Amino acid sequence: MGFDRQILEASLKAERKSDYLPFSLHIFESVSSTNQILWDLLHQGAEAGSVVIATQQTAGRGQWGRQWISHTGGLYLSVAIAPKLEASASHQLTLASAWGIAAQLRQCGVSVGIKWPNDLVLEGRKLGGILTETKVSHGQIAQAVIGVGINWANPVPETGINLELWQAAQATKPISCLEMLTCTVLQGIESGMQCLSQEGISILLSRYLDLLTNIGDRVYINSHAGIVVGVTSQGNLQLRMATDNTDELIKPEISVEPGIISLGYSKSSV
């Protein structure tokens, strides 16, 4: 699948409302991992705003060290940023990217939501995911790479959905080509980072929650039932736990870190 740099550059020039990130594009047909290639470029002197794009990965990475299956025909990209954040706030980069990309796709007419903490969903199925990696120095994030995978025309599992097949069933085709999708995703990352930097985590989190599809989901922790009620500023899932005491007006709430609980795409459990 060919990727046309000129179309992408023209789209970015026409569509971008700001140049918060100075995008420098590095485009490949196939790479081991866009995140890894971008880290290599950063070690060689590349700067924030550098972008690696591919339509196939042979060794893609997901959350918690999982393999990310990256068949030909998808969109796989990574963006380098230099956020002014403490190391403990790295989750904010994922929240910002997820909100920004989902919001940008929705503006185009694709009804994307967010599944906590880092998945993009369409009609209840996984459209894409985000992997944030950071390098820390003296307790601060010195460099960060935001990796994004979006299903465009690649084969997907039963719990997934690709954008081309979804669009074939729509009256119109909101995203006309892979280059437009790439432009939209890059704009989304840029707008998310801009929101985080200029408006802060509270505003960003409220916007993230507006697009979160998990509110009201029932989950189980050690056989105890809880209802998803939100996400904390630390990026943890907020649950209101059920109790046997029917007289208790205020139910206890707990927060759960990413990786402790898996929401899945059906019944959720630890």
Compute the gyration radius: what is it? 19 Å
Structural class: alpha+beta
Poorly predicted residue ranges: none
Based on Cα principal axes, name the global outline.
globular
Fold and architecture overview:
The protein has a seven-stranded mixed β-sheet with strand order 1-2-5-9-8-7-6, sandwiched between helices. Strands 10-11-12-13 form a four-stranded antiparallel β-sheet, with no helix packed on it. Strands 3-4 form a two-stranded antiparallel sheet. It starts with a helix and ends in a 14-residue tail after the last strand. With 270 residues, the protein is α+β, with helices and mostly antiparallel strands. The protein has helices at residues 5-15, 34-43, 91-108, 163-168, 178-199, 201-210; strands at 24-27, 50-54, 60-61, 67-68, 75-81, 113-115, 119-122, 125-137, 140-150, 218-221, 224-231, 237-241, 253-256.
List the helices and strands and how they pair.
Blueprint lengths: L4 H11 L8 E4 L6 H10 L6 E5 L5 E2 L5 E2 L6 E7 L9 H18 L4 E3 L3 E4 L2 E13 L2 E11 L12 H6 L9 H22 L1 H10 L7 E4 L2 E8 L5 E5 L11 E4 L14
Parallel strand pairs: 1-2
Antiparallel strand pairs: 2-5, 3-4, 5-9, 6-7, 7-8, 8-9, 10-11, 11-12, 12-13
Helix pairs in contact: 1-5, 3-5, 3-6, 5-6
Provide a compact summary of the structure:
By secondary structure, this protein is an alpha+beta fold. It has helices at 5-15, 34-43, 91-108, 163-168, 178-199, 201-210, and strands spanning 24-27, 50-54, 60-61, 67-68, 75-81, 113-115, 119-122, 125-137, 140-150, 218-221, 224-231, 237-241, 253-256.
